[in-house]
Amino acid sequence: MAREFIILECTEAKAEGKPVSRYISSRNKKSPNTPTRLEKVKYNPNMKRRTLHREIK
């Protein structure tokens, strides 16, 4: 199946005005399980804790 590279950006740091952290991940392009933007909890080194990261376009 076709894989698509996506960029995940921290939502909590963006709301607080701090530097955002970004991660690169991949997902199945044609999967019915992920029709919307992907969300993962990842570590943000600027905030020194795990935060919610959402897919950006």
Account of the protein in words:
This protein is mostly beta strands and 57 residues long. The chain has one domain: Rubrerythrin, domain 2, CATH 2.20.28.120. Helices cover 11% and strands 51% of the residues. The protein has one helix at 11-16; strands at residues 3-10, 22-28, 39-44, 49-56. 7% of the residues are buried.
Concise overview:
The protein is mainly β and 57 residues long. The chain has one helix at residues 11-16; strands at residues 3-10, 22-28, 39-44, 49-56.
Write the topology of this structure.
Blueprint: E1 3-10, H1 11-16, E2 22-28, E3 39-44, E4 49-56
Antiparallel strand pairs: 1-2, 1-4, 3-4
Number of strands: 4
How much beta, percentage-wise? over 45%
Unreliable segments (pLDDT under 50, ≥5 consecutive)? none
| Amino- and carboxy-terminal Cα gap | 21 Å
Radius of gyration from the alpha-carbon trace, in angstroms: 12 Å
Number of domains: 1
Return the CATH architecture. Single Sheet
Please list the strands of the largest sheet in the order they lie side by side. 2-1-4-3
CATH class: Mainly Beta
What is the CATH fold-level name? Rubrerythrin, domain 2
Determine the structural class based on helices, strands and strand pairing. Answer: mainly beta
Helix amount:
10-25%
Query: Main β-sheet: number of strands, strand sense, barrel status?
Result: 4 strands, antiparallel
Shape: elongated
Count of DSSP H/I helices: 1
Give the overall pLDDT as a whole number. 90
Secondary-structure element order, N to C:
EHEEE
Query: Can you say what the CATH homologous superfamily is?
Result: Ribosomal protein L33
